[in-house]
Give the backbone structure.
Amino acid sequence: MPRSMAPPPSGEFSIRLTRPFTSTPTSKIEIIGEPNRPASIKHTTHVGAQNQTLIVKEGSIDAEDSNELMDLIKPLAGFPSNPDEDIYGLDARLDLATFVVQWDNGEEVEGAEARTNPTEENKEVFRDVVGSIEALVRLKAKERTS
């Protein structure tokens, strides 16, 4: 049965990008914020033998970048999703919870196209969104010092 996702409270948005798609994530990016305001970024990576070393990078994006990101993810609403298979071929899971878009390529989402394969255009849009999120992290998140 498809999951019905409720929008987050008070217009807050949450974007989560994890890799790999099917097993325990070794990389997790979280962007949390509100429209027209700066948003926080957190990138957690597990590396080393048995992924025991944790690297955390944190930062923020300004309101303009936050709004651009919201515009960038809007086309993903209603794209195909599949809980069993990485249909976009990037070994990445993207979970969006915004007031406008509630979508997760790793779950059956109500309103998404039922178990269909994405078009090449869908794959390109997904690839662009994932690339943009990862670029924001590279530019804005810095390693946390203890």
